[in-house]
């Protein structure tokens, strides 16, 4: 069941009409005194709001208005920005303004603020036993809120005026609001003044009224929550600066520096820049921030998220469940803020003549980051018309694909070593353990040899490589041209021996091996037979190519059936391998989560030890390192000063966000002038 929000505000617009003033003041709806009895009835305030809005147009009750005037000795319950209860003179002046607006065909905005009685009771503005409502406090809250809403709509001009009445004749307390202009200042749309208000403007009146009406205890809760968010954000940013000073983070910062495009206007180094030439630097900076938020900064970051979620929950209770979830927006704000602080300091670093270590950047960006960048570069290549630019893009794409291949092999090798260690530590000493450890060691050794360029392998390496590749090769990667009886025989022998061992699924060594290889719940005999069939089909195709070289028609006839079977087997093998990859990915994720805290402490100790015990090997000039070090120090100092402007009130814009937008506007202006 959906909870009823504390406040609802609904608004519509029509041409200005003086009768609306009479409607909002009718006697059965208003009470100049501060007490009334809430009528019993339905509890859904949205229902009340809809009914009231539906009755605005053309509604007149002169008789009720006259009674009210007679009974109140010249004082009206209507209030405006300057008065809580209008005099006769003020009332006539207001009516004249509405007539003038009507004459000039200005817009009339009719709004209803509806309060949940439970909220008013919590705010100590309504006593359910006596039925007394503190109208004065409600009026002052509306007087505070409407100007802020008008400012959002650029209606805070002398031509604008408004009035309102507190209505007590429905299930809930309502404030009926009228807004108009003596002379229209709004932009025209289809020949008429623009009538709709922005969503954030309508949200503004609810938030300000709520803030002004709620009791002191609740207000202190919000203030304390926002202070907590400020402090937690400060902790996250301060820890960022501290970690950046470590050797590893300084190395990461160095790679970001190398990747930054040489813009004439370096203010374009912003998290909001989506240009393809800035993509690598942005990905590197984003990866740095992501890694820190997941490791060193994780504890404070989780507390920050908890506070934001609490604030989001409070807002939904106040304004209803249909308000947007702003948690992702706040996460992105923090992420972009941390990235921009890094870019800010790098802008201050002078250009130093030094060789960019491209391979280091590619390696640190990782497989996922490089694949994302390759996709961006490929789209750019597809759309480019310049041969020179196309050649440059092709070269970079090729280099990145090459390095991605290396990274994949390195990750596999590390995984093999981890599996060997686990077998030795947790397995049972027997023949199965010896075989499986040897199997993993051979695969690791093959991976090491594959990382050595072919022209740099000596004869011993070449012999060892060929022996291992024949044994452990992926059958889908063997070409028809290169396959032969020797390769098939060696591979079949290995598969038979391997299956004989891994079929012993009750052995603890086999269980560990199958789990880490992603082979759990895989039909192993079927997996082996499938690989054998694929090799046999390729061998038969090669034999037919040789035997029927002079009879293409007969060769195609013989091979047609084989290719069809091969295609089906490939699809089946692909499905099994996908399942294996998925299992291995899940295992790595679980291992990463389990070892996160241990790894975090280990990395801190290792970084501290490296900083104190040995001087880092640097391939860059001391001048650049010095400037990067100074930049990191400035990030810490500047971040500490500017963080005080963050999140003083979650309904207001952050100072740093404003400055970021100013920088972006100035940058765009500068770029336009350059063009």
UniProtKB/TrEMBL annotation:
Residues 607-616, 658-675 have a biased composition (Basic and acidic residues). Residues 374-426 form a coiled coil. InterPro entries: MobL, MobP2. It holds the Pfam family MobL. The keyword Coiled coil applies. Residues 591-675 are annotated as: Disordered. The keyword Cell membrane does not apply. It comes from the Bacteria. Keywords: Coiled coil. NCBIfam families: MobP2 (NF041498). This is Relaxase MobL. It comes from Ligilactobacillus salivarius. The gene is mobL.
């Amino acid at each position: 069941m959906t909870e009823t929000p504390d406040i609802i505000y609904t608004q519509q617009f029509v041409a200005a009409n003086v009768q609306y003033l009479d409607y909002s003041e009718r006697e059965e709806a208003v009470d100049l005194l501060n007490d009334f009895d809430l009528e019993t009835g339905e509890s859904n305030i949205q229902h009340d709001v809809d009914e009231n809005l539906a009755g605005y147009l053309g509604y007149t009750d002169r008789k009720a208005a006259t009674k009210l005037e007679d009974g109140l000795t010249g004082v009206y319950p209507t209030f405006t920005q300057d008065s809580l209860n209008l005099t006769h003179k003020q009332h006539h002046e207001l009516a004249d303004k509405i007539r003038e607006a009507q004459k000039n065909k200005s817009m009339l905005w009719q709004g209803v603020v509806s309060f949940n009685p439970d909220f008013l009771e919590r705010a100590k503005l309504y006593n359910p036993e006596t039925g007394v409502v503190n109208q004065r406090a409600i009026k002052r809250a509306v007087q505070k809120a409407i100007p802020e809403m008008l400012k959002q709509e650029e209606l805070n001009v002398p031509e604008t005026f408004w009035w309102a009445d507190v209505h007590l004749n429905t299930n809930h307390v309502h404030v009926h609001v009228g807004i108009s202009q003596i002379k229209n200042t709004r932009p025209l749309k289809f020949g008429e003044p623009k009538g709709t208000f922005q969503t954030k403007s309508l949200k503004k009146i609810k938030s300000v009224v709520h803030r002004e009406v709620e009791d002191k205890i609740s207000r202190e809760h919000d203030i304390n929550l926002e202070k907590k968010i400020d402090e937690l954000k400060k902790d996250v940013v301060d820890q960022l600066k501290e970690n950046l000073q470590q050797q590893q983070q300084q190395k990461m910062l160095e790679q970001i520096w190398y990747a930054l495009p040489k813009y004439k206007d370096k203010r374009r180094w912003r998290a909001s820049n989506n240009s393809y030439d800035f993509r690598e630097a942005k990905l590197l900076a984003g990866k740095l921030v992501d890694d820190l938020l997941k490791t060193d900064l994780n504890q404070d970051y989780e507390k920050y998220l908890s506070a934001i979620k609490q604030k989001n929950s409070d807002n939904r209770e106040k304004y209803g469940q249909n308000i947007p979830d702003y948690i992702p927006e706040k996460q992105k704000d923090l992420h972009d803020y941390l990235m921009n602080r890094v870019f800010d300091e790098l802008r201050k670093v002078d250009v130093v003549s030094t060789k960019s270590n491209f391979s280091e950047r590619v390696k640190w960006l990782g497989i996922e980051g490089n694949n994302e960048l390759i996709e961006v570069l490929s789209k750019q290549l597809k759309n480019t018309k310049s041969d020179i630019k196309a050649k440059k893009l092709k070269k970079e794409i090729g280099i990145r694909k090459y390095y991605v291949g290396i990274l994949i092999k390195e990750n596999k090798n590390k995984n093999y070593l981890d599996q060997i260690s686990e077998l030795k530590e947790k397995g049972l000493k027997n023949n199965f353990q010896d075989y499986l450890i040897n199997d993993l060691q051979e695969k690791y050794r093959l991976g090491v040899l594959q990382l050595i360029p072919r022209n740099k392998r000596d004869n011993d390496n070449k012999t060892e490589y060929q022996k291992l590749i024949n044994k452990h090769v992926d059958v889908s990667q063997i070409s028809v041209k290169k396959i032969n009886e020797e390769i098939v025989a060696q591979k079949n022998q290995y598969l038979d021996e391997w299956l004989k061992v891994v079929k012993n699924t009750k052995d603890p060594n086999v269980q560990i091996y199958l789990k880490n290889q992603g082979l759990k719940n895989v039909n192993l005999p079927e997996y082996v037979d499938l690989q054998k069939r694929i090799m046999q089909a390729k061998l038969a195709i090669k034999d037919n190519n040789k035997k029927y070289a002079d009879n293409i028609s007969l060769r195609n006839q013989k091979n047609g059936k084989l290719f069809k079977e091969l295609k089906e087997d490939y699809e089946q093998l692909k499905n099994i391998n996908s399942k294996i990859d998925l299992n291995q990915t899940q295992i790595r994720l679980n291992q990463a989560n389990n070892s996160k805290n241990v790894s975090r402490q280990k990395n801190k100790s290792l970084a501290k030890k490296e900083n104190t015990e040995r001087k880092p090997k640097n391939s860059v000039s001391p001048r650049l390192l010095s400037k990067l070090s100074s930049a990191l120090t400035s990030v810490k100092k500047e971040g500490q000063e500017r963080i005080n402007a963050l999140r003083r009130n979650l309904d207001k814009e952050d100072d740093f966000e404003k400055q970021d937008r100013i920088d972006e506007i100035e940058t765009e202006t500068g770029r336009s002038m350059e063009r």
